[in-house]
Design goal:
176 residues; mainly alpha; 7 helices; 0% strand
Length: 176
């Protein structure tokens, strides 16, 4: 799992160079501990950007998107991710022991979670139509399957780290 994450970050560091940021060190030549330290030194926003860019690169490779469509795809994928995150951010229940909730409070939380699921599904439908303008239906299906696989891998990582020992962002991402 760690190798997959480091490979993921390695691909990002090679392909993604942003002129507004100072050049990133070559993760390929760093030791595993140096890579960890570098990633830890990044702000949460920089880590998030690193992960988003790496995910886009992996999707492009997995879907075999032609070069002339890659920039459009990256922008649309980023827009989709931001849209999904905005919806998820609306539903941030307080961490409460289920037994401490009244029936009415529990019912309200259930209804909110169903509403959230519907909003996410509707958003996915909207973006499916947008992705179909640049991808084949098979590629869109693979994209959404890939999204699920990445979510599962992040959840596995969280479980391995144990509750409360993660870096915050991974926990936040996994709750989405």
């Amino acid at each position: 799992m760690k190798k997959l994450i480091y490979l993921f970050l390695f691909y990002f560091s090679i392909v993604s160079i942003n002129a507004q940021e100072p050049p990133r060190p070559d993760l390929k030549t760093m030791s595993q501990e140096q890579r960890r330290e570098y990633i830890r030194s990044l702000s949460p926003e920089q880590r998030q950007k690193l992960m988003e860019d790496a995910a886009a690169i992996m999707a492009i490779r997995k879907l075999k998107i032609p070069e002339e469509k890659q920039e459009t795809f990256k922008k649309l994928l980023s827009e989709y991710a931001q849209s999904q995150k905005a919806i998820k951010d609306k539903f941030k229940p307080a961490k409460v022991d289920d037994q401490e909730l009244s029936d009415a409070e529990a019912k309200k939380m259930l209804d909110q979670s169903f509403d959230l699921g519907l909003q996410l599904l509707n958003n996915r439908k909207v973006y499916t139509e947008k992705f179909l303008k640049i991808l084949t239906p098979q590629q869109v299906l693979k994209l959404f399957n890939h999204e699920g696989q990445m979510r599962e891998k992040l959840m596995e990582k969280r479980e391995k780290l144990g509750n409360g020992q993660g870096n915050g962002q991974a926990e936040k991402d996994n709750n989405n």
